[in-house]
UniProtKB/TrEMBL annotation:
One of its GO terms (molecular function) is ATP binding. Coiled coil: none annotated. The keyword Transport applies. Pfam families: ABC_tran (PF00005). Keywords: ATP-binding, Nucleotide-binding, Transport. Belongs to the ABC transporter superfamily. The keyword Hydrolase does not apply. This is ABC transporter ATP-binding protein. It comes from the Bacteria. It comes from Dactylosporangium salmoneum.
Length: 327
């Protein structure tokens, strides 16, 4: 069984690898084209330490391409990406500075999980003890000697995360780490990401699961068609999307709709006895209904979910949406 993440990822008290400066990722005016496709379009952002930053956007928005540029696997046509102030390719012993999970299947299928990590550790002059630590941390200790080729998707993800943590890096770039994890694994990765950030690390994590990020991320970078749509705190984005919508429960829906429309609100029915009211603060909704003698049992300001906030933001940017979806 996977072990819980109990006490951070390192026995060291402070981050050892970025002396005299904060760890960072800085992307400046990066563009990347593949023939006719503009995958990334003059994208600029900086990722702050001490927070989990979610990297989100519709399919094909350019997230993986951007992450590949950050870790030197793709060369941008324009612009630059710096990690801890330098291009990734000029880092010495990169595993000790940047932990990367991009493609969890990129493991020699005939090698055991432990041998895979030993090989990586050796290439970066890291000790064997750390290999056993990260196997334990990722819940793979019991499977350490099994061939990685026989691993499930979730186990491969765990192995990829173990590899990313091997060098105790101050910067983490994780593409869809939740992919394939079971519910226990999802809880585990959530705790792991939060504690990595709490230790002052830079944690950039792409995901399609807004519900996951709502519980995990502090900040969001939203991209669409290669461009930056938002660079915003999760709380602020939800607050913005919540607008001033008020939900009212009433037995007399028709009368309530008439009264509120006459008071200047836009009203939509959400259910037999539930209304969504836009354009009127809660106090005015209450006084209008009370004044007209329309009974109601509940009245509360609606808090948008991160999913709703995200859908608002990306509605026009979805390149591969199913025809008719959301219409
Ligand atoms: N090696 C490549 N060759 C050609 N086109 C590519 C290549 N890699 C990415 N693209 C294209 O670039 C665009 C951005 O792709 P990318 O994989 O970066 O998006 P993404 O946001 O990670 O998508 P998803 O959420 O589906 O993983 C897409 O149109 C994709 O088809």
């Amino acid at each position: 069984m996977p072990g819980p993440h109990r006490r951070g990822t390192t026995s060291r008290a402070r981050l050892p690898n970025v002396v005299g400066m904060q760890p960072s990722i800085e992307v400046t005016a990066v563009s990347k084209r593949y023939r006719a496709v503009v995958a990334v379009d003059r994208l600029s952002f900086a990722v702050r330490p001490g927070e989990v930053t979610g990297f989100v956007g519709p399919n094909g928005a350019g997230k993986s391409t951007t992450m590949r540029v950050i870790v030197g696997l793709d060369t941008p046509d324009e612009g630059q990406a710096l990690v801890n102030g330098v291009p990734y390719r000029s880092l010495r012993r990169p595993l000790t500075q940047v932990g990367v999970l991009l493609d969890a299947s990129a493991v020699h299928p005939g090698r055991s999980a432990r041998d895979h990590l030993l090989w990586l550790a050796h290439s970066n002059r890291l000790g064997r003890r750390r290999v056993d630590e990260v196997l334990e941390l990722a819940g793979l200790a019991a499977a350490a000697r099994r061939r990685a080729g026989g691993f499930s998707l979730g186990m491969r993800q765990r192995l990829g995360i173990a590899a990313a943590l091997l060098g105790d890096p101050a910067v983490l770039v994780l593409d869809e780490p939740v992919n394939g994890l079971d519910p226990e694994g999802i809880v585990w990765i959530r705790g792991l990401l939060r504690s990595l950030a709490a230790e002052g690390r830079v944690v950039l994590v792409s995901s399609h699961l807004m519900s996951e990020l709502e519980d995990t991320a502090d900040h969001l970078l939203v991209v669409g068609r290669g461009r930056l749509l938002a660079d915003v705190g999760v709380a602020e984005l939800i607050e913005r999307a919540s607008r001033d919508q008020v939900h009212v429960r009433t037995e007399d829906r028709t009368a309530a709709m008439t009264v509120l429309a006459n008071a200047g609100a836009t009203v939509a029915a959400l259910g037999a006895d539930l209304l969504a009211v836009d354009g009127l603060p809660a106090a005015r909704v209450s006084s209008a209904l009370t004044g007209a003698g329309v009974p109601f049992s509940e009245l509360q300001r609606h808090r948008a979910s991160l999913e709703e906030a995200y859908m608002d933001l990306t509605r026009d940017e979805t390149e591969f949406a199913a025809k008719g979806a959301g219409a």
